Amino acid sequence: MILSVSFYLALALPGVSGSGTVQPPAPAPAMIDMSSPSSVTADLAALAPVSNKVPLLAVDAVVIKPVITPIKPVKKPETPVFFGTRSWLTMTAIQHSTAAFDAWSTRRSITSGNGHELNPLMKPFAGSGAIYGAIQLAPIATDFLGKRLMNSKHPTLRKLWWLPQAAGSVGFTLSSIQNLRVASSH
Question: 47 to each of 29, 44, 60, 115, how far by Cα in Å?
Answer without folding.
Answer: 12, 5, 29, 107
